[in-house]
Structure formats: C-alpha cells, structure tokens
Amino acid sequence: MNTVLLALAVDVVAIVVLACAIYYRRHRRADLMFAYIALNTGIFAVCTLLMAQQAGLALGFGLFGVLSIIRLRSDEISQREVGYYFIALALGLVNALGADSLLVMAGLDLLLLGTMYAADHPALTGRARRRVIVLDVVHEDDTALRADLERRLRAPVRRMVVERVDYVRETMVVDVRYRASDPQGSARPGTAGRPAARPEVLR
C-alpha cells in the first residue's frame, strides 16, 4: 500500500508539471489541461488495479495499445496536443507499473517531462505559424502564389498547400505554414502550429 501511495504521489507531481507547468503555461487551454490530468489519473488507477489482480503486464500494454489507436478527430486538436495526450498516458503507465522501482520510475518521468519541455520550447517553435487562407485571386503559378502570400503575411512562407480553387468566384483556399517575423507574431497565445478552425480571408 505504501508503494502504491508513493507511486501515486510521484504520478500526481509528474502530471501537474506536464499539464500545468509546461502545457497550460505555453498554450492556455484549460480544457485540454483537464483532459490530460483525467487521462493520466484514469490510466494510473486502472493499471494499479490490474497489477493488484495480477492481470500481468500484457494486459496493461494491451490497454496502452487500444488507447494509442484512438484517433482524435477535431480541428481544435493539433498533433502537438496529441503528443501531450500520449505523454500523459505514458506517465500513468510508467508510474503504475514501475511502483516497485522508484529510481527507474522517477528517471523515466524526468525523461518524458524533459523531452516535452525541450521539444515544445518556444525557442524552437515560437515563430511557427499555420493559417488556412482564402485568397480573392487565383494563381496558376506557385512562384506567384508564394510571393502573394509573403506580401500579405509579411513573413517567409515555408510550405503551402492549395486545398480548393473556385474559378467561378476567383478564389482559392491555401493551407500556409510560415515563420512570423517576431516571436509572438499576430497569433494568440498557444495558437502556434494549431490547425485553423476555419479559413480566413486575406485581401
């Protein structure tokens, strides 16, 4: 019992660091912060119960496999945020299954948290932006399209994908990845790299 309580304490500290200190401070989404904490706590509880019933590691990893194939279908969820989901899930598994080895458990927690802290650091991704844009002109040439986008966005375009062209209305929808000229850019906190909910018109 003491081992389980210690593992629970370590897990609570780890998920609070991930969800609150790392994710929420950078992206300001309370709904996903709650989701990460709930997922982590649920995984920890289920795995602890399985271990108590001597269900074995195979069932625990089977649970991980089932959860890992769930695809989150939402324009409001970016691949970055899916990454946080998996780390929250992994922390719950590590702390529940590794309760008998405190050093290994703590070391793996530090590895997972350190990886997310570094990989999602603003120094690496702070200027990355994505926007889905409706242009009021149709460009047949990629060079002209890139030049037009860079003029409108006032930033270098890294990647662009034409999603739709309407020759009747003379409009085109373009998914644009670009690098903002200043670290904050024009985006709200936490929007860097997030899929746009709807196309915006640039004139």
TrEMBL record:
UniProt name for this protein: Permease
Regions crossing the membrane: 6-25, 32-51, 57-72, 84-108
Keyword Transmembrane helix: yes
Region (Disordered): 181-203
Stretches with biased composition (Low complexity): 185-203
Keywords associated with the record: Membrane, Transmembrane, Transmembrane helix
